[in-house]
Specification:
Immunoglobulin-like; four-stranded antiparallel beta sheet; five-stranded mixed beta sheet; elongated; mainly beta
Length: about 140
């Protein structure tokens, strides 16, 4: 499994094998002051699944760390399984959209942050962004 897309969004959902994104692809969050609570962020991923990853549990872990590498306590973990549709040619890959929502994120200070995405304890994607204070 590898990830072909990874982004932040204001909201996102998966329906009928497609991902619907609202306000996606940004890298800066502006807050009035810090510390700040951000209501909601969606981590949007598109995984490419090959034959070796079909019909088994695939795990994904997402964690938010600050620019110094400190864990913020905002983490998500999930498992999914992808089968092989009958119409899929041998050896073909499938694109699978995934969304993980994070609510009530507390940013203690302005600066850099990153969502780190791992599969089987190996980092497979990073989504860096900044929190900027308007004051």
């Amino acid at each position: 499994m590898r990830f072909t897309s990874a982004m932040l969004a204001d909201a996102a959902q998966v329906s009928a094998g497609k991902v619907f994104v609202l306000g996606g692809g940004f890298d800066t969050i502006t807050v009035r002051e810090v510390p700040a609570i951000h209501r909601y962020l969606a981590v949007v991923l598109v995984a490419e699944i090959g034959p070796a990853d079909r019909n088994r549990d695939l795990s994904v872990q997402i964690r938010l760390v600050d620019e110094d590498g400190h864990d913020t306590g905002m983490n998500s973990e999930g498992k999914f399984r992808v089968g092989a549709p009958a119409a899929l040619p041998p050896g073909a890959t499938s694109s699978i959209p995934l969304v993980s929502g994070f609510g009530g994120i507390r940013f203690e200070r302005a600066g850099g942050y990153v969502f780190i995405v791992e599969h089987e304890e190996v980092e497979v994607a990073r989504i860096p962004f900044r929190v900027r204070s308007a004051t």
